[in-house]
Structures are given as structure tokens and as C-alpha cells.
Amino acid sequence: MKIYEKLLLENKAWASEKVQDDPEYFLRLSKIQTPEFLWIGCSDSRVPANEITNTQPGEIFVHRNIANMVIHTDVNLLSVLEYAVAHLKVKHVIVCGHYGCGGVKAAMTNHDFKQVLNMWLRNIKDVYRLHRDELHQIDNEEARFDRLVELNVQEQVLHLAKTSIIQRAWKHDQRPHLHGWVYGLKDGLIKPVFEMSANTNIDSLYEYDDL
Ligand SMILES: [Zn+2]
User: Fold this and answer.
1) Phi, psi dihedral angles at 189 (to 5 degrees)
2) Which residues are catalytic?
3) Beta-carbon neighbours within 5 Å of ion ligand 1
4) Contact 88/108 with Cβ under 8 angstroms?
5) Model confidence over 132-177: pLDDT tens digits?
6) Hey, what domains does the chain have and what are their CATH numbers?
7) What is the DSSP string of 60-71?
């Protein structure tokens, strides 16, 4: 059996198990999608949104990229955000990073990862530069790496709040609540590190007054 054929076989077993437990399961899910959460996580295979939160299909709308970045020129991310916030009307947006993130670690080096990855990682280097004073006070390299993971999540949440998508929903709907979380690969636990409730004041430079 080829390695990918195992996935298809497991899929069959999973689907029939679901139907055994609840004959209407897929019928119900196929009709409507009403998730309350948008998850922006890292592509890392060890941080699957549904498994680590023990949620089911239909509960979390998911976007993942390297190092869970919110980049304002990323049409993919912005489309997901717009759809989740304006159409699905999610109540919470979660940016979930993780300790031991390869993307964050790579950004801490001076290695040339070639153009496309360099371009992506540069956004994490910007986070490092913004918080250089705090990071340079941490002698232990592992601890500094952990802290950059947390600060990166915080900055990505702030990036969400800078979008007109979030500000419009805050103004007209008093949602969504923004959360910055960090998942621990070593213990499987999620640590909340930052949050912004609807209409939290942000730097006025980024505020739209005609939404
Ligand atoms: Zn990662």
C-alpha cells in the first residue's frame, strides 16, 4: 500500500464511525456552517486547531501559514478574515503561535533562506526589532526565543486590529474579541498571552473614522 493510500483508507473508517455514532452528522454539517471562532495558526503539523482544542468540524474556521502571521498584503489571509468576520460573523479571532516555532527560529538567524522565505520571515524580524530592548535583556537563548514567539502573537493580534475589517465589526457589532495564544509543543497546553476586546483603543494613526 502506498503511503497516501493509508490516508484514504483512514478517511473511510473515520466517516463510517461518525455515521455510526450519529446518522445525520454529515447531512447536518453539509447544510450550514456557523463557527464562532476564526483560528489563525501556524502551518506546523504538530499544531492542528481542532485536535488541540478538542473541537469538531464546523466549530472553527481555520487559516494557517508559517508562524501565524497577519500580513496586510496577504490577500489569502485578508479574504479569510473578511469572510469569517463579515459573513460568518465569528465572535472570536484567535492567533495561535507555538513555542519551538521553526519560522520564528529561522527569523532569529542571519541565514539566507532564499527570496520567498526571506520575504516572509522579514515580518518576524520586524517584530524582533520593535521589541529589541526587551529581548536583548534575556540572556538565555531559549527563553528569548520563547518570548519572541509570544511577542509575535501579540503583534499579529495588533495587526488584526489595524484592519478596517475588524474595526468595522467592532463599531457596528461589538465583536469579535481578539485573542493571542501560544501552544506548548512539550506539554500540549495553550497559554493566553494577549487579548483585545471589541473597541479597545488602538493607536489613532491606524483608526478609521468613516467606517
Ligand atoms: Zn510554527
Assistant:
1) -100, 145
2) 42, 44, 46, 98, 101
3) 42, 44, 101, 103
4) no
5) 999 999 999 999 999 999 999 999 999 999 999 999 999 999 999 9
6) 1-32 (no CATH), 35-206 (3.40.1050.10)
7) EEEEEETT----
